Every structure is written in C-alpha cells, then in structure tokens.
Amino acid sequence: MSTAHPSIDYEAVLADLEDKRTAIENAIAGVRQILGQAGASNLGHVSGSFTVTTEDAIPSDFFFKMSIFDAVKKYLGAAKGPRSTMQIVEALEKGGLTHASKDIRKTVSTILNQKAKEDVPEIVKIKKKWGLPAWYPGMRKNKKGGLDQVMDDLKEELSS
C-alpha cells in the first residue's frame, strides 16, 4: 500500500526542501567565514560541508543532478569567497554538472544576473565576481530589487 497522497507533488516538495537545505548550508558557510573558522588551509569535509581551496580539489560528482543555480551556490559556499563567471563555469564542469547548453558560460551568466536582481537575491555581484549575500552584510537593496554596493551608488551620483 502506498502512503503517497495523489494530490501532493512530491517532486516539488523535494526540490523546495533541497533549495532550503542549500540556503542553510550557505548561511552556515557565511557565518563560519565571519567567525574565521574556514581558513584557506581548511580542505575537506567539515560538518557536512566541503571547502574548496583550489578548483583541482572539486570531486567529479560534486554537482551531480543539481540545477545550475544550486550548483553555483554550493560551489561558492565551498569556495568561501567570490569567483568570476569563468571560474564558476570551470568548477561546475569539473564537478560533474550535466547540462544541455550550447554555451554554458552565457547560460550561467544569464542565470546569475537574473538571480541577483530578485527582491531577496541569493547571490550578489561584486565588481566582476559573484558571491553570497551573507558575505556582504553592509550591502543594501537598490530600487530595482537587487543588491548594490554603496560605492556603485556614489559613482552614479557623482557622474550625474
């Protein structure tokens, strides 16, 4: 006898729970970085998380069966610091992310730019690199809903 309820979309429930788990793991990684617990010499599994000090340390199945954005968040959380789009793409491919994109760099860039513009973004762009919002507590929302650095606002005000 099956205990599954026919009107519940368990795939959606599972996806939602996995997204929340990833967000919690990223928050924990951000707090650890603030506390200084995740030094550059820290490599390997620590309390269920993985720290990447070089892209060569990424296991070949690190992003197996993950969406592009979930894989990016996992990578940034493990990398413990901002990365460029190309660094992210190289890490995703090395970590076994499967995709059907003809130009994965453009796909990743588009996804990241869209996610950074959300009302409560899960990723931020700092100059030409991507990071997790927990790493930048001094950032504030801009009028369009994404996060923006105070310096960018000052530059815009000074140029007008």
Structural class: mainly alpha
Number of strands: 6
The rounded Rg comes to 17 Å
Q: Give the SSE string.
A: HEEHHHEEEEH
How many structural domains are formed by the residues?
Answer: 1
Helix content: 40-55%
Question: What portion of the residues fall into strands of 2 or more residues?
Answer: 5-15%
Q: Mind describing the biggest β-sheet?
A: 2 strands, antiparallel
Which residues sit in consecutive blocks of at least 5 with pLDDT less than 50? 38-48, 143-147
Distance between the termini: 69 Å
* Approximate shape: globular
**DSSP summary: helix tally:** 5
On the 0 to 100 scale, the average pLDDT is 74
Q: Would you kindly provide a written description of the structure presented here, covering whatever features stand out?
A:
The protein has 160 residues and is mainly alpha-helical. The protein has one domain (10-159). The protein has 5 helices and 6 strands. Residues 38-48 and 143-147 have low confidence and may be disordered.
Q: Topology, please?
A:
Elements: H1 10-35, E1 44-46, E2 49-51, H2 68-79, H3 85-94, H4 104-116, E3 124-126, E4 129-131, E5 140-141, E6 147-148, H5 150-159
Antiparallel strand pairs: 1-2, 3-4, 5-6
Helix pairs in contact: 1-2, 3-4
Provide tags for this entry:
5 helices, mainly alpha, 160 residues
